[in-house]
Amino acid sequence: MKLLRPVLLNVFTWSLVFLIAFPLVWMIVTSLKPQSELFRIPPTWIPESVTFEHYWRLLSETPFLRYFRNSVVLATTTTLFVVALGTLGAYSLVRFTYRGRETLALLVLFTYLLPSVVLIIPLYLMMVTLGLSNTLFSLILAHTTFALPYALWLLRSFMEGIPEDLENAALVDGATRIGAFRDVIFPQLLPGIISTALFTFILSWNEYLYALVLVNSDAVAPLTTGVMSMLISAFNIEWSLLMAASVMMSLPLIVVFAFLQSYLTSGFGAGGVKG
């Protein structure tokens, strides 16, 4: 029985990995199939002839690159805003004592629990009043509103795990509050900042509802709404281009994870040695 248990665990684990990875693998395989193999019955699991025609058509014949650029600007700017505001807010909630601090923290969390549908109409009216409707900046503000509350609580939990004595020692040694934050708190908080940045980037990259309501111009549309309007209609779906677009849309998330994964633990222990 002891020998059988690891085998069963491995079988279960790899079966789970296969089930999770299958949609992504099938999407890649379909994007590389020629048009003649797309609707073949039974389907071909491995393309008889690999083609990159769909990627070429997607990049040369459609405004995909414009949508891609808009999404990169949108997700990156939103992430920078959320990380900066969330870090300062978490520092305030943990290190300073003032009346209503816990109430404020609970109110912030409550706003995250509200569904997006409840907030979309007030946000739309606010953007119209401010003259920001149908702009990429309106999406950045909207994405910040729903990503910031969770990011604030996530960073707050990381901040609470940093010993206050380290910061006090730096202040005693003559460091300013900003200097102590930069040299002591920030290195310790780096894993939390990176985790928050990953969460925010993915949330902003995949968001659909706000982009559908706040933006109706093709020039500032992100990938989520741009690809849908470009490749999906009531009478036809461009499956070959849709699969190629889906692969291209997944690449930035894979690159971000691959690049930042090594930094998730690099901040632990940094800045904790008093010089």
Question: In terms of topology, how is this protein built?
Answer:
Blueprint: H1 4-31, H2 53-61, H3 64-95, H4 101-113, H5 116-130, H6 136-160, H7 164-172, H8 177-206, H9 209-214, H10 223-231, H11 239-260
Helix pairs in contact: 1-11, 2-11, 3-6, 3-8, 3-10, 4-6, 6-8, 7-8, 8-11
Structure description:
With 275 residues, the protein is mainly alpha-helical. The protein has two domains: 4-51, no CATH class; 64-263, Orthogonal Bundle (MetI-like fold). The protein contains eleven helices and no strands. It has helices at residues 4-31, 53-61, 64-95, 101-113, 116-130, 136-160, 164-172, 177-206, 209-214, 223-231, 239-260. Helix 1 packs across helix 11 (239-260) and helix 7 crosses helix 8 (177-206). It is globular. 29% of the residues are buried.
